Amino acid sequence: MWNRAKTVLITLILVAASLTVYFSLYLKAYTLTGLPITERDTSWISKVNSLLEESKPYPDEYTKPPIIWFHIYLYENGTEQLVDAGEADNEFVVYLQDLLLRVDGQRNISITQEFVNKVLATNKVLMLTERMYHDFHLWKNFGRALFVLEDNLNEDLEGIIIVRETIEGNWRWSRWEITK
To answer: Residue 57 — pLDDT band, cuts 50, 70, 90?
Structure first.
């Protein structure tokens, strides 16, 4: 009887110790990021890559519509390529705007322009720019968004969305993600 009680007691102590370690690690991660631990949803990347494959290379010379509201650029291996331009009813633009509406996790409040330049120079990134700044979803004077499709910096960037807004005449970049 005493051996069984000792076994149960030891088991309870081990379970309690394991839970203590787990929750202390969770609390540490929560404290460092300010957000609960979540898993980033990167499933949208395959749809974006599919839309990229369907897009024809944008011609160097083209007839501009009266007003082009949106531009989509692809940055890859340090090069920039215009993928699409046009109005708000464009399927690609609508999908990218839908992704922006789904962001639910902010990882860094502020990101430097130098970091953004490094991301554009080394990773596969899609950039959505808008002609007119306006309030959009969570951002004031939204102007552009970077969708990181591949992370060649090994900095856990795949699937993040970096957004630029203008506040009181100054740019501000912030890092966001869609969580599962």
So the answer is: low
- Is the pLDDT at 25 greater than 50? The verdict is no
| C-alpha distance from residue 177 to each of 4, 25, 28, 149 (Å) | 50, 22, 20, 12
Spatial CB neighbours of 115, under 8 Å, sequence gap ≥ 6: 173
* Residue 48 near residue 147 (C-beta atoms within 8 A): yes
Domain locations in the chain as residue ranges: 1-37, 44-177
Alpha carbon of 37 to those of 20, 27, 106: distances in Å? 17, 9, 12
Question: CA-CA distance, 140 to 40, in Å (whole number)?
Answer: 24
Token readout for 110 is 């502020």
- What whole-number distance in Å separates Cα of residue 142 and Cα of residue 128? 11
What pLDDT does residue 31 have?
A: 37
